[in-house]
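ARCHIVE RECORD
Type: protein–small molecule complex
Small molecule: adenosine-5'-diphosphate
Source of inputs: curated submission
Record status: active
Notes field left blank by submitter.
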Amino acid sequence: MSEVTSKEVLAQLSKVKGPDLKSDIVSLGMVENVLVNDGKVIFSINVPAERAQELEPLREAAEKAVSQLNIEKVTAVLTAERKPGSQAPAPKPAAPQQHAGGGKAGVPGIKNIIAVASGKGGVGKSTTSVNLALALASTGLKVGLLDADIYGPSMPRMLGITDKPTAQGKILSPLEGYGIKVMSMGFLVEEETPMIWRGPMVISALTQMLREVAWGELDLLIVDMPPGTGDAQLTMSQQVPLAGAVIVSTPQDIALIDARKGLNMFRKVEVPILGLIENMSTFICPKCGEQSDIFGHGGARSEAERLGVPFLGEIPLHMDIRTNSDGGTPVTVSNPEGPHALIYKQIANEVLARLDAETGSRPQIVFE
Ligand code: ADP
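STRUCTURE (tokenized, with ligand):
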């Protein structure tokens, strides 16, 4: 069975009428980032942010049209319309190539390493990392997750993994959770064990978790960074060939100021910033559905614009996200078709698009 091409996908999509009910969504230029990989198709439909909800039937119609092809799975995500001008690529310093091989020793088998960072703790960096990794894996990519938050490893809990890694010589095998490979200091020590790390130990612990683990072939390794801008971050960003960094922030000013520090750190070591994510953006009351902006709203978006970095999306503050991530069943797997999973998938798609723009490499995906 030969793989369908993105041309065939577009041909199907050109049968879907746009919101004006006259032209089709392809000629309206709404379809973006068509990816076909191993029988799985993912694409985005660009819509005005404020109409995303009412255009859900359009998304479904597009998926249905593509599902007529001989494929295994199709995922359409709605992405917010880009304001003219805001998407002009930020002027890049003459940075050396950052992906595998660019001066820093790569990790054999791993195509792209992406750091998820935040200026301070408690903003939902780990929750975002795990859901982002799972959303990326749901597109058919081979994904690994390195919990580099050695001060407070949370991946064993978030993925409900209680096993311990086995070792062959000094090489550890990663554990698996919901189809992604995972390594965390939390597998090696009890969660309650207080860990005090001194600088050189931090460096060797991180280096080991990255390089002395049998990751195998990975399209992407997501690194959940420790919060802040200290030793560990600098080590990671200096010694690891990062393809890019994603910064997670709450809308509060203070967290934003910290996020700015994080941005500057990556810029200093010439790691491309793939963009900013606003977490705990709005609170939707589970009882009455009313929306409240507990931590303010839109702070990260305007901050991203001001700093000239892409804005990747907003994740609401919601009970389901908390109980599932703390209960070992991240919302992207416990309710993969739900509204929150969809948001993480949209963000995953944006991350892939930004990675493509920065490195020109969209791993293992047919992109025509
Ligand atoms: P960090 O890694 O930045 O320290 P965590 O991901 O551990 O933060 O999140 C801190 C707490 O907030 C956790 O209990 C987590 O479940 C919760 N949380 C994170 N993001 C959200 C969200 N969008 N909605 C609800 N709870 C969230």
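CURATOR ANNOTATION: Residues 118, 121-127, 154, 227, 279-280, 315, 317-318, 321-322, 325-326 surround adenosine-5'-diphosphate (CB under 6 Å).
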